[in-house]
Each structure stands twice: as C-alpha cells, then as structure tokens.
Amino acid sequence: MSLCMPKGLSFRTQADPREPQFHSFIITREDGSRSYGFALTFYEEVTSKQICSAMQTLYHMHNAEQYDILHMPSAGPPASLQRFNSYDITRDTLYVSKCICLLAPMAFQQACRKVLEQLHQAITSSQPPPLPLESYIFNVLYEVPLPPAGRSLKFSGVYSPVVCQRPSTSELPLFDFPLSDVFQLLGVENVLQLFTCALLEFQILLYSQHYQRLMTVAESITALMFPFQWQHVYVPILPASLQHFLDAPVPYLMGLHSNGQDDRSKLELPQEANLCFVDIDNHFIELPEDLPQFPSKLEFVQEISEALLAFGIPPEGSSCCGDGVPKLTGFRSCDEVSDRRNGNLAGSPFNSFRLKDNETIARLQALVKRTGISLEKVTLLSNRETGVQCEEDELQTHLLNVRLREIFANRFTQMFADYEVFVIQSNQDKDSWFSNRDQMQNFDKASFLSDQPEPYLPFLSRFLETQTFASFIDSKILCHDDEDKEHTLQVFDTRVDKVRMLNVRTPTLRTSMYQKCTNIDESEKAIEMRVSKIDHTALHPHLLDMKIGQGRYEPGFFPRLQSDVLSSGPTGNKWAKRSTAAHWRLRDKQRQHVEQLYLDNEQKHIQEARSLGASIRQPNLSNLSPSVIAQTNWKFVEGLLKECRNKTKRMLVEKMGREAVELGHGEGSITGVEENTLIASLCDLLERIWSHGLQVKQVNWHLEAFRRKSDAGLALPPLKVSLIEDMRHIQNIGEIKTDVGKARAWVRLSMEKKLLSRHLKQLLSDEELTKKLYKRYAFLRCDDEKEQFLYHLLSFNAVDYFCFTSVFTTVLIPYHVVVIPSKKLGGSMFTANPWICISGELSETVVLQVPKNSLEITFECQNLGKLTTVQVGHDNSGLYAKWLVECVMVRNEVTGHTYKFPCGRWLGKGVDDGSLERILVGELVTPTSENEERLCRTPPMQQSPSMIRRLVTISPSSKPKLNTGQIQEAVGEAINGIVKHFHKPEKERSSLSLLLCGEYGLVWALEQVFLHGFRTPRLFKNVFIWDFLERAQAHFESPEQRELEQDENWHTRAHDFCRFMRAVNSTPRNIGKDGKFQMLVCLGARDHLLHHWIALLSECPITVQMYEDTAMIKDRVLVNSLIRVLQTLQDFNITLEASLTKGIGI
C-alpha cells in the first residue's frame, strides 16, 4: 500500500487538478529477486455525506488555527487565508484518491501503463466497455503469458491492442523506461555525472515531486551500468515512514518525494560530502567531493548528444518534460537520411528492410521502372499500415533506448576488452571459495591499471575497488562455461569476443582515442522486426462465468471487483496446460537457440575479420590444404614483423618528441600519446608473438619454462646483468597476481634497464626448448624474422624509459646505500652515529641509521620513484664527531639504477660551516666504459655535480675565480634552465631541485654574485655569505633604521627579508651556514622575492662595509641587469621538495 499510494489518501475539490497520475515501483525480496509494480492514481467523488461533513469540520479547525497565527499586523491582508478556506460542503464537490495497481515479474512498463489507462478509461467514458472489467483483468492475469526471449506478443486491452516485445538472449537485457525523459530532465552532463557516482558507489538521493520521475531516473541509471549491477540499497521511491534509511552509512540509491515547497536547504541529510543529490525537477545535481572524470568524457558526451539530436532532444535537457512517453519529434537527422521507417531509405521508397526481400515488391519495382515512372514520387503508407503493430512514439522510444544503451555498453566493452586475462581463477571448489572469499583477490588490479591510459586511472583505480566490479568478477569466476553464465555476463562476453576477433590481427592501441559504437543498426533492426511481425497473440478477453448482477458498474466509479471469478485461473487454455516438463523443454529450446545464435555470431565475426584488408585477410575455411596453411602463417609472420617495426618507430618518435619531428622521423600529430599506453600496446604485440605457433595454447608467455631451463647454469658466477634475477624480482612482487601481469611487468622492467632485446635473445637461444614449445611455422622459429624482431627492440636502448618505476608505484623495492668518506680524511676515528634520509619523486624514507663501522645499509620500502635528494648527517656524539663525506651512492636493487649524491664537505661542529647535516642533490650514474660491470645502462638526465663543493675560506690572498661577465652568464644559464624546465611537458621535466641546488644551479650562481669582491675583517677567518646576510638583517631591524622615512615598498621588502631570515635561523635542523643560504635562495625563488632582496641588499650600508668597490653587488648597472633576469621567475609556480624546506613554517 505504501508503494501504490506513497502519500496515502488525498482529498481534492473540483477546483484542484485531478488528472490520473501513473507511477511504477519495485519490490525487492529477501533473496534479491524483484517484482515490478505499476500504479494509476485517480480521483473519485465522495458520496458519503458523513465524510464530507467531517472534512468541512477539519477545514474549519485548520483555518481557525492558521488565523490565530497570521492575525498580526505583519500578516498582510485577509486574502492570505484564502488557500485554507478551500472547501464548502454547500458549493464544492469532494474527491478522494483511488489507485489500481498491476504487479508483473518483468518491467513491461509501457504495456502495463496502457492496460491501466484503458481500465480507467472504461469507467470514465459515457459508454460501458464491451465486456465487464473482470473479463479484461482475468485475461491479463491468467491468459496473457510473458513473451519468450526475442519474440513479441500482442494482447487485447479494453479498447485497443497492446504490444510488448522482449529482447533475445544475445541482446541487451529488457528495459522499458523512457531514457529520453531522463536526458530531458537532467541533460547529458548531469546524467553522466550521476552515472559516474553510481559506478563509484556513492550515496545517491533523487528528489522530485513526481514518483514516476524518481523511478525512471533510478532504473535508467542502473540499466546504463550494463554489464555491472548495482549491489547496494536500492529504493527508488522511499516511503515517508522509512526516511531514517537515509542515515545508513552505506552506499544507496534512493528516491525522496518532494512536496514542491521545501528546497534543498531544508533537507537534513547526513554525510553530505559523500552524497550525490539530484533535484530532478530543477535540473540540478550536487556532486560529492573529489569525483573523478569518466574516461573520454568529452567524446562520450558528444556521441550521446548526437544520438539525442537525431531524435529531436536537446542535449542540455528541457524542463518541459512530462512523465509519459516522450513525444520524439524526429529520431533521424533530416539532413542526412530520410525516415527509413516509412521506407524512404537512400531516396528510394522501396529500400525499406521490410520490403526489400519481398519478391512481389521486387517484380512490381521492375515493372514500374520499365514504364518510366519515377520511383521517387511513390509515397508509402504509414507505419501502422505497413505492418508496424505499435504506436510511432512507442517505437521511437524503443529505438532511442537501445541506441543510448548500446553507446553506454560500448564504452565498457572497449575499456574492459581484455579483462578476462587479469581474472585470478581459483583452484578451490565453490564451497571453499565462498568460505575464503574475503581473504582472496579475484582480479589483478595492478597489472590491469598498468596497461591503461593515464587519463583513465583516476576513475578506474577507484572503480576496481567497488563491490559492483568485485561482484562482476566473482560471477565470471563462478561461471566456467557459457551454460552457467548469467545472461548479462554472457551478452557482455560475446561482445568482448567480437572486439577481440575483429582486432586479433590489427589490435588498436589502448589509448584514450575514442571508438564509437558500431552495432546500433543491428540492435535497432531487431526491435523493428519484432514490432513489425508479431510472433504471438494471446487469447482475447471473453465473458466469465459470473452470477446475474455481477459486472455492473456506475460511470465515474471504479467498481468493487468480483473476487470469486478472479481468485483462480482457467483450466482449459493452451497457456495453462504447460506442465513443469514442458517448462524445462522450453528452457532447453532456448538454450539451443542461444548456442545457434553464438555460432552464427562466430561465423559473422570471422567474415568481418576477413574483410579488414588484404594484409590481414584470412583464407577461405573450405580450403585447408597444407600450402594454404603455410602461406597464411607466413603472411601472419610478416604482419607481426611489420607491426613490430612500426610500433618501435612510433614509440621512439613519441619519446623523442618534437626533436624527432623536426628531423623528419614522423608527423606532429603522432605525439601526445601516453607512454604508458604505447608500452601496453607493445606488450600486446609481444603476447601475440609469443603465442603464435604454440604447441599447447596458454595464456601466459611460457617465461617460467624458460626460467626453469636457465636455472641449470647458475653454477657459473652470477652476472651483474641477470635475466634470472629480473624474473625473480617480478615473482616477488605480491601485488601482481596473474602470469600475464607478471610478464608485462617483466617487459617494463627490462625496457627500463635497456635489456629487453638482450633478455629475449637469451631466452630464445635455447633451441631445444623452443622446438619443444613451438611448431615449425611459429614466429619465434623463423630465424631471420626473429633477428629483425630483436634488432627493432634493441632500438629502445636509445631512449630512457621509467615505465616500471612510474607504473608500479606501490610495490616494495630494496635499496642499497653506501656512504663514501674522504680517502685522505676518511675519519677512521669517527665516533658519531650517522643517519640518512632518501627522497624521490613519489615519496621519501624515514630517517635510517647507518652502521658507522661499515657505512653501508640495505633496506626495503615502497617505491620512491626517481631519486632526487639525500639528507645525510650524524648525532654529534663521541670524542671525534667530525666527518668528511665524499659522496653517497644509492642503488635500486630491482631496476639497477644507481644514483650518486656528491658532498665533499665536513659534517661537524667547529669545522667548515658547522653543519651536522647536509642536503645533497644527485642523479643517475653513467658507466665510463662498456667493460665495467654495468649497474645501470640508463644515461643521466643531466651532468652529475662535482665533488668539490662550496668550502669558502676568504683571505687577502684569495680572489674569486670568476669575473663579472662570467657570473652574469652563470646566472643567466641557471635561470634559462629553470625556464626551459617549465616549458617542457610535465612528464618530460627533470628534477627542479637539481636546477636549483645542483652544480651550476641557481644557488651556486647567486653564491658567485655574493662572493665577488667579498672582504674579510681578519686573517685566516672563515667568513660565509650567511654572516653578511645576518648583519644585513640586524641593520634592517635596528631602531635607527625603522625611524628613517622610507617608501612603503622598501619597508615591505625589508620586512619580508627579515621574516625569512628569522625563519631559516630558527629551524631545528643543523644544516650550517651554507645550508641556510641554500634554503633562503630556494624560498625566495618559490615566493618570487629574490629580485627584491638583491635590490635591497645592494643599497644596504653593510654592503659598503663588507664588499670592495669593484664588487658586483655594488655596481648599479650590473645589479639592475641581475634583477631583470631574476624577475623572469615570476611567471612560474615553483614547488619545492619537502626535503629542501623541512622545518620551515613559511
């Protein structure tokens, strides 16, 4: 009752709107099964005088109460009470709501609506229906069966026939709600956002005055999720008594009725940060925080918009949308094609698919042509007259529904075309699998995501964690053959198989390149065929065995139905005679039909694959002679080699970027494709090469077989470059579950180490194993082609790939660290306890204690990415806490990348600048000779810093080595390096810390500026730039300086300079004076203050005292030139690594 009439009884008068209102609802049972309800609410006159009198009394009481509230000076004129005085028993007619409801096991919404509307029409018309209402209701309940899959059924209503059709087992599941209403109410953009929220299992609350809108939007969104299914709380119409369900801390999709007066601000909804609120009536959607964008959103919106425009629906939506079947003005673009439903396809009225196969029409057409009459002037009959059995609006609703659903389904087919290879199949029986389900992983998410385009990752990484996706994969695991598969999974897998078969010889790159849906016409034709030729007609309504006097009714009032004639069904019609055995025979027949459809589709897909082009054409299957087979395999080998050549060239051109285009190695349009996508496509190619000609087809690459064979040679001294070690590293990564995922991770690792060609050559060098695994015609047994294949892969060594480090960001990586002290002053007596902290582009380590006796440590942590900085220091304990460090070496034990962090400085109190810790900037090491033991073959990103650092000892005899011209050039080069850094694509940028703090970086260049012409007050005293800056700070903060009248800009600059100086000096880190200078320069570059500080210091009296007259800082022309160069940094947003600013609160 609460779902049929969610608001309960309502009363109205003749002045109120009383049009019948239709809505549907859903009943979910405890076992998860669903039934659909369809209700028509209308109003009947109240004939009881007692009820009318009671209603008038209630109105009087209500008006009196409202009068007391509103009878105030500010209440306004008495007209404001008019709405309460709306019923007078002497002049008004009172009406009460009544509802008729029809329950069905499947959602035939349009058919059920017609049945209810015709029943209501029977009691409101002036003429009684041909038969009592019980006859029509009995017919619907007991004599109208469900249409079989892929068939249509026609049955009789009270006044007109009703047609319902059901998709076949190879089509998308039944869905009968008008999608056009949803897009008109919300618009494409809002629908797609709501769709994304549903996929990511956010809490969704629909809000509308109309119950049918709530149901239509909810059912539409869940239907568009195909092949996935909503797994959580689903209440499209939430009764008022159950509104406490909104407090549930779980994902839900609910519909809340609005009375049309309360706005969004009056709703008290919990957990709003995780809620998607949809105000359907006002075309408004409130999205949860941090909602990722659906993949290829712009192209997806464009394709949906084109489909809507073809049916006359604006993509932005329209507020004037009724709750009924949409009035689609035109479902085809009038500029492109005519209305082929009327037979006017391609300009000819006889090209309709319903007529083109008719031999009589063909003969008439030929006869007319011989008479010279133009066929273009022939006008065909309407749809109804040419055989279409349903109304035009109903047909167009079906066609638009299937077009939109096919577009949505195509997105998932393309995105998850290879999902099956990442499914982790269980070796347990079903009972054990169910009992251990929570502890098991069913999908290799890390490997799947590593193959996806980068723009897809924010959405996909979250979607793979949902219960929706997990349930989909679970159903895949539990269905070992097609007979066990659910209908949804079977349809989806069939479509995936078709995509694979069409792309088996020319696979598309996994890029964000959008691929439109191509099977819309096939789906539309299936619907048109069903509504053109009715497969089944149900029994007509007939007189029932009713007593005299039964079946009468009073016009305007729905009668009390005779329960005795409706309580049981008939015993003698053809539908009731079906026994249980017949029911199983029907299932067997349908299963055979499914198998036949599958075989037909297989043959059709083969035909489509054959027509892709001469280079990939398959032979006629009727000619399977040995010569034809050999020729076909040879063409396949040639095609694989050609594809390998094209793919390697494409990847090299993309990696080299614009420089390659300028050199004539490609076109500009080829750039911009994600590196991750190109490598994933290379893995596709390698998989197909590895599987070609296998004796026994398997999913994996048989690398394990090669590994076991190669283990026999481990008695030899281990190689620094070891195929076996690389494979063991991959085996130890727990995040990768499947063989395909491990093979792809191994390819990425080998490419990053520039060893892919070498490793594959080693694998293929075992001819005995190759002959055992592969047939003679296999690609890997064609010697010439195999050599060319390895040669093409060798070209990848010309560029740097970090495709393993950048993709597997969460795996645990072992790192080996060696601190190298100075050989002359190595500190064999060093007593303090050293420590180290390593930072990379992805994360940083905690502080790691280094054994002082070995100065070497191996640790394991989450992937740090490319290493950028190292913080090294000691605790200043013991008698001799002075340590001269030459450099720090860090090696990634998986990729082999070795980073060198030069130091060349003392760490200790009372020596050098008194620093107990230093921040070192490093980069990749390049071996100087091919004969050296190769720890890493990857060239460095830039030149490595030298080991001679900034030990500044000023004495009368020491002079700066650089003149003013050289210093200007150094500053210009440092700034130019930063500018180039920001003008590169973000993925191609090197380390900004190296440009700031490395050799010839900005810190070094500004250090030369301040060292030029620097004086010393006493002999043999170490004076640092930081000493000068501290004296300048004291001068700016002196009372005398504050009393001087200076312009506002000067005070602001001085205040900022002193504030940053205090912050750096107050840091708890013992980074020494040079370390503090480095930190100040980095902060000034970040906040674009360096040029202000240079201008301020050049005019400071302390500069006159501490610098010679020829110093660069005292030359106004050179200072102005320096300021102009530093102002260039204002155009860039400089973000510093945490290691450079640790301990600073600014």
TrEMBL record:
<dbReference type="InterPro" id="IPR005112">
    <property type="entry name" value="dDENN_dom"/>
</dbReference>
<dbReference type="Pfam" id="PF02759">
    <property type="entry name" value="RUN"/>
</dbReference>
<dbReference type="InterPro" id="IPR004012">
    <property type="entry name" value="Run_dom"/>
</dbReference>
<dbReference type="InterPro" id="IPR037516">
    <property type="entry name" value="Tripartite_DENN"/>
</dbReference>
<dbReference type="Pfam" id="PF03455">
    <property type="entry name" value="dDENN"/>
</dbReference>
<keyword id="KW-0677">Repeat</keyword>
<protein>
    <submittedName>
        <fullName>DENN domain containing 5A</fullName>
    </submittedName>
</protein>
<dbReference type="Pfam" id="PF01477">
    <property type="entry name" value="PLAT"/>
</dbReference>
<feature type="domain" description="UDENN">
    <location>
        <begin position="1"/>
        <end position="486"/>
    </location>
</feature>
<dbReference type="GO" id="GO:0016020">
    <property type="term" value="C:membrane"/>
</dbReference>
<dbReference type="InterPro" id="IPR036392">
    <property type="entry name" value="PLAT/LH2_dom_sf"/>
</dbReference>
<dbReference type="InterPro" id="IPR043153">
    <property type="entry name" value="DENN_C"/>
</dbReference>
<feature type="domain" description="RUN">
    <location>
        <begin position="993"/>
        <end position="1141"/>
    </location>
</feature>
<keyword id="KW-0472">Membrane</keyword>
<dbReference type="Pfam" id="PF03456">
    <property type="entry name" value="uDENN"/>
</dbReference>
<dbReference type="InterPro" id="IPR037213">
    <property type="entry name" value="Run_dom_sf"/>
</dbReference>
<dbReference type="InterPro" id="IPR001194">
    <property type="entry name" value="cDENN_dom"/>
</dbReference>
<comment type="similarity">
    <text>Belongs to the RAB6IP1 family.</text>
</comment>
<dbReference type="GO" id="GO:0031267">
    <property type="term" value="F:small GTPase binding"/>
</dbReference>
<dbReference type="InterPro" id="IPR005113">
    <property type="entry name" value="uDENN_dom"/>
</dbReference>
<dbReference type="InterPro" id="IPR047278">
    <property type="entry name" value="DEN5A/B"/>
</dbReference>
<feature type="domain" description="RUN">
    <location>
        <begin position="673"/>
        <end position="809"/>
    </location>
</feature>
<dbReference type="GO" id="GO:0005085">
    <property type="term" value="F:guanyl-nucleotide exchange factor activity"/>
</dbReference>
<dbReference type="GO" id="GO:0005829">
    <property type="term" value="C:cytosol"/>
</dbReference>
<dbReference type="GO" id="GO:0042147">
    <property type="term" value="P:retrograde transport, endosome to Golgi"/>
</dbReference>
<keyword id="KW-0344">Guanine-nucleotide releasing factor</keyword>
<dbReference type="InterPro" id="IPR047277">
    <property type="entry name" value="PLAT_RAB6IP1"/>
</dbReference>
<dbReference type="GO" id="GO:0005802">
    <property type="term" value="C:trans-Golgi network"/>
</dbReference>
<feature type="domain" description="PLAT">
    <location>
        <begin position="813"/>
        <end position="921"/>
    </location>
</feature>
<dbReference type="Pfam" id="PF02141">
    <property type="entry name" value="DENN"/>
</dbReference>
<dbReference type="InterPro" id="IPR001024">
    <property type="entry name" value="PLAT/LH2_dom"/>
</dbReference>
